[in-house]
Design brief:
There is one protein chain. With about 180 residues, the protein is mainly α. Helix content is about 80%, strand content about 0%. It contains seven helices and no strands. α2 packs antiparallel against α3 and α3 runs antiparallel to α4. It is elongated. The two termini are about 25 Å apart.
Amino acid sequence: MDTPVPKNSGDEARALAAVETHHAGMLRRVHALTSALTQAVKAHDTVAEHDAHEVLVEWCETELVPHALAEEGPLYSGAGDTPEGRLLVAGMLAEHQVIVGLVERLRAAQGVDAAVAAGAIGEVFALHLDKENRLLMPYIAESSGLNLAESVAGLHELVGEAHVHAAQHSATPRAHPVDG
């Protein structure tokens, strides 16, 4: 088994802040896209509805689902291997399956059904992010055998592009390598 790299509390705090900031941006985006689709459906504007639907589906396919898949690797694996984190991670993985199913439902839906699927994606995603931000990530950051900064290093799907570039180009020497 690998020897854990000593954690730097500053690195952990920066990683936590980066993930939370990225999550907040994703949440704003899904709410804006969902609102655009819902408003178009309410207005019976089929052109705007089609466009809003396409943009939301594309965002889900290029941002939301890749974000979920990226979490399942380094972020969830360590916590999922601990007795304290096992059930939380299992529940969060189940939420990923629900989100992917809702994206599939959205892809095939039109009109009110599409607006309902979009709203469900937004609500489940908001709940999911709240649990990650308040429960999972603080647990990882505070656990002696886990390392949040290392888990998210180089993964723009989890922390956003700005944090990845800042970490890769930092002049501060690191005690551990950054994957990227």
